[in-house]
Design goal:
Number of strands of chain A: 0
Distance between the termini of chain A: 19 Å
Helix content of chain A: over 70%
Number of helices of chain B: 3
CATH class of the largest domain in chain A: Mainly Alpha
Shape of chain A: globular
CATH superfamily of the largest domain in chain A: RNA polymerase sigma factor, region 2, helix turn helix motif
Strand content of chain B: 15-25%
Strand content of chain A: under 5%
Radius of gyration of chain B: 24 Å
Order of helices and strands of chain A: HHHHHHHHHH
Structural class of chain B: alpha+beta
Largest interface: A-B, 84 and 63 residues
Order of helices and strands of chain B: HHHEEEEEEE
Strand order of the largest sheet of chain B: 1-2-5-4
Shape of chain B: globular
Helix content of chain B: 10-25%
CATH topology of the largest domain in chain A: Rna Polymerase Sigma Factor, Chain: A
Number of domains of chain A: 2
Largest sheet of chain B: 4 strands, antiparallel
Radius of gyration of chain A: 18 Å
Number of helices of chain A: 10
Number of strands of chain B: 7
Largest sheet of chain A: none
Distance between the termini of chain B: 57 Å
Oligomer: heterodimer
């Protein structure tokens, strides 16, 4: 989205335009959902809902470009995940929808299966990381937050965040190498973006 | 602790690695959001935006309602202590139809009308209210997710589009108490006890069926302190409710394992059944 286009959408959203909110949602919600899943949130969809409604409610407080907006949204999402963990112990677990019900009905079943299989090693590897390492990786990768932004968000110094990231990446690379030794190798060695 | 990192690879070496691992992470985790859920969320965003306070330095902030000026003519005589005085003052206030001590829902207590929500969605409302004896502001509740399993037996199948039958819950004519609820419906489960409620009032319920028929967006307006909200859909078991606390109450989605028929009755309640209400789900 161009800078002007983003500002226009933002202004329309501030005015309450549903199509504008839909644009913002489509551009960010999948990544927020991925962040919540990767972070192990018990109800990732709840995190998305809470984050996006908070974004809508506080749009007047935001000022910046699209990248800053993404960082702002992920800052909110991070805090929602942290809050959700605190609430989790006081909460009756809701029945989760079956995995197949979570994904778009229009997705070809075969693709969904392949994607699901391919994602397992990555999810497992992420879960083996420490909480801080996982936060840093997910915020950097999914939220595109800078080291400085991540440092501010999690309350660390920039140098510490860089080192946490280095250790996390090193461990991920080690853990994922066997899992992707088959058909998924290009994702690790060639930087394929998906 | 942050400075003791030992022997690690150079920091700059992580940039390329971040790209490589990031690609795998994105591919594994980033998936499109369910279309119906996305639509429900967008509607929530619109509703949240509509309920957001206006920008600017004069933004109204939620807080305690202003105290009304003292009116010496309505002061209770000192007859038998403060309790008796309070009762007399309340009686005098009722007789003279005094304004509700600054509480913005005070006028709804005597004649609870169907509330109006600004989301533009159709709604029906039934109110059961606790007696507001003070002006406790609406505070942000803590937890608002409840799963229900069976339909309530007390909710009539309503054909009206304005209001369902009022629940029979009667609020005690005293201040908000901390006693545990005794009439909690068996169809609800919650993590909060009724004793966390302070002057709870259920103002309105809006329930709108989303395309596909398995999601219902719900907007519930409350005042007082309502830490959680239970919801149920008559005739449907196994629903999943995801309600987020808002400045005005709760809002969120209710998901059913089967298609929800428009016209079904959604029931909401909290605080050990001290507040309950129903709404006909609109398409």
């Amino acid at each position: 989205m161009s800078e002007d286009g983003f500002r226009q959408v933002l202004e329309q959203a501030r005015a309450g335009s549903e199509p504008a909110f839909a644009v913002l949602y489509r551009s960010l919600a999948p990544a927020v959902l991925a962040f919540a899943r990767g972070r192990g949130a018990p109800d990732p969809e709840d995190v998305v809902a809470e984050t996006m409604t908070s974004v809508a409610r506080n749009l007047d407080r935001f000022d910046g470009d699209e990248a800053a907006f993404r960082s702002w949204v992920f800052t909110i999402a991070y805090r929602r995940v942290v809050d959700g963990r605190r609430r989790a112990s006081r909460r009756i677990p809701a029945r989760h929808l079956a995995e197949a019900e979570d994904w778009p009905s229009g997705s070809p079943p075969a693709d969904a299966v392949v994607d699901g299989l391919a994602s397992e090693p990555v999810r497992d590897a992420l879960l083996r990381l420490g909480a801080e390492q996982r936060d840093v990786v997910l915020l950097r990768v999914l939220g595109d937050l800078s080291v400085r932004e991540v440092a501010t968000l999690i309350g660390k110094r920039e140098g510490a965040v860089k080192m946490i990231q280095a250790r996390a990446l090193s461990q991920l690379r080690r853990d994922l190498a066997p899992a992707f030794a088959g058909g998924e190798a290009p994702a690790m060695s060639g930087g394929r973006d998906g | 602790m942050d400075d003791d990192w030992g022997d690690l690879p150079p920091i700059d070496a992580g940039d390329d690695e971040l790209e490589l691992v990031g690609a795998a992470v994105r591919r594994a985790l980033v998936q499109p959001v369910d279309a119906a859920l996305a639509e429900a969320h967008v509607r929530l965003m619109v509703a949240a935006r509509a309920s957001a306070p206006p920008p600017g330095p004069f933004r109204a902030r939620p807080g305690p309602a202003p105290k009304p000026p003292r009116r010496p003519s309505h002061r209770a005589p000192f007859i038998a202590g403060l309790a008796a005085g309070g009762l007399v003052a309340a009686a005098v206030a009722a007789v003279f139809s005094l304004p509700g001590r600054g509480h913005h829902h005070a006028t709804e207590l005597s004649t609870p009308p169907p509330a109006v929500v600004t989301t533009g969605a159709p709604e029906t409302t039934t109110l059961t209210e606790d007696v507001p004896t003070s002006t406790v502001p609406a505070t942000v509740p803590v937890t608002a997710v409840v799963t229900t399993s069976a339909p309530p037996s007390s909710v009539p199948a309503s054909t009206s589009t304005t209001a369902a039958a009022a629940p029979t819950t009667v609020a005690p004519p005293t201040t908000a108490r901390t006693e545990p609820p005794t009439t909690t419906p068996s169809t609800t489960s919650s993590t909060a006890a009724g004793d966390a409620c302070v002057n709870p009032v259920l103002v309105s319920i809006t329930a709108t069926l989303q395309p596909g028929g398995r999601y219902v967006t719900v907007v519930i307006r409350t005042t007082g302190t309502v830490p959680y909200m239970s919801v149920n859909i008559s005739g449907i078991a196994g629903i999943t409710a995801s309600l987020q606390p808002t400045a005005f109450g709760f809002q969120g989605t209710v998901t059913a394992p089967t298609v929800i028929a428009a016209g079904s009755v959604l029931e909401a309640g909290a605080c050990g059944n001290r507040i309950r209400g129903t709404a006909v789900i609109q398409s």
